[in-house]
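How a chain folds remains the central question behind the approach discussed here. No coordinates are needed to read the tokens, only the vocabulary itself. For completeness, the protein is quoted in full, as a sequence line and a line of structure tokens:
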Amino acid sequence: MADTDPPPSVTHDDDEDDDDEEFDDDLDDEADDGGEPPASSSEAARLEAVLRRLTADEVRIRVHQVTIRGCDRTRRAAVEAAVGLDLARAATVRDLVRAAAAAGDRLRRLGAFDTVSITLDAAPPGIPGSAVVVLVDVAEARGRAAGDFGVFAHTQTRSCSLEGSVKLKNLFGFCETWDASGALELDKTAELSAGVQMPRIGAIPTPLVARISFLSDDWLKSSLKEHLMGVSVGLLSTMNHNLAYNLTWRKLTDPTRMSSNSVQEELGHSLLSSIKYAYKVDQRDSSIRPTRGYAFLSSSQVGGLAPGSKYSRFLRQEFDVRVALPLGVLNGALNAGVAAGVIHPLERGSTGSVSPLLERFYLGGNRPLVCRLGGPSSLLGFKTRGLGATESRTYDPNNSDNGTSSSPELNGLGGDIAVTAFADLSFDLPLKPLRELGIHGHAFVCAGNLGKLTECDLRKFPVTDFLQTFRSSAGFGVVVPTRLFRIEMNYCYILKQLDHDKGKTGIQFNFSSP
């Protein structure tokens, strides 16, 4: 964020030369990232040359004090933790410039301040040597609350959902973020979650992240109802790394008593304890419409850690790679991505199952191809959980509804191995009003497949059959980005599907948060 105040004047002892004065003025502009521009290009070039010389040479300097100003609601410990110790320990001009830039970036990422300014001033009289005082000025953000609300129509399930979220920032002065979100799909799904994220403070070595969630889900045309309550606690959180412990209680029921034999083994209560590590890098210029850059996600989850767990221990590994290449015509860009996941048992359970039903991979649904990283899941044109192995539901003679359909319903079993890939070509539309609103067109092709592990040994997995049974779809559409959500209106054409897959050629609407 740019600072609107000009950097303070710098004074020095008589034994310091003019170069130090020029450096101080220039460093103010560098760390401040928003001081007033030089009066002329020649002066700017002169100051830049001085800074290059001072940072190239080992010019010694001593920081006498780091002063933080502007904290009213924010606790001082939170700002001191973000500033760090590198500023006070800087011994050269080069170290001081780097430390000031890094501290300013960390303060801005807290999201609690409108402006951040780091400047230099002379040390108090009587302090010997080339000592300076570092001034850290912050202006706290005025608005601490934000909320979103939306109504979405889902063409595949022919239903509507209400979704909303609320965020509170810096409520108790620790630069923490409190958030709550909910989604209600009429007669289908209800989901609530709340969490807090607190930055590193004092002796705490890592930011604190905790979240609690509730879910009630009616699986599409499968007679199953899922109830979930989970708690997640972050153990390590940095810009690229995240380590969390998850404890989840689930209840899977079948009110119709018609689920398949494999599903009946999974009915009832279960407690899943797991540790999940994720490494994420996202260098794309935008998550809404990337035109250049790359992104990578790798997540590893070890589940079944609780003593006496219903499920045996397993390893869930996922990868997601994205790349965006500019085309130079109509602001066009080619986005391509590949995602893969596998669930591998660390031991075989007493029931002989390789993985829990609720932890398996399911493809299909309305998730956009380009936006967020998250492993294999999206395959446009197919319904949610509408792809992969199925099993016929059983017949209950006590249920009079069994005979209402001539074709038996099927339970989707998901897969232990999943692979998806896509290519998406985005381009500007010819109408200028649409371009100014960010509305653009795109064409896409995507493919994916699910596989089931019948043996614990991955080397026995039938790779050839897996590749030959890939499902695929293609289409085109219009993307409408808004402040609250991103809308895709697509025409999807199914290129390949197998028996019992729930794919359909036609119009599809996709919604996602920006």
Q: What stands out?
A: The radius of gyration is 28 Å. Residues 93-109 form the longest helix (17 residues). The chain has a mean pLDDT of 77.
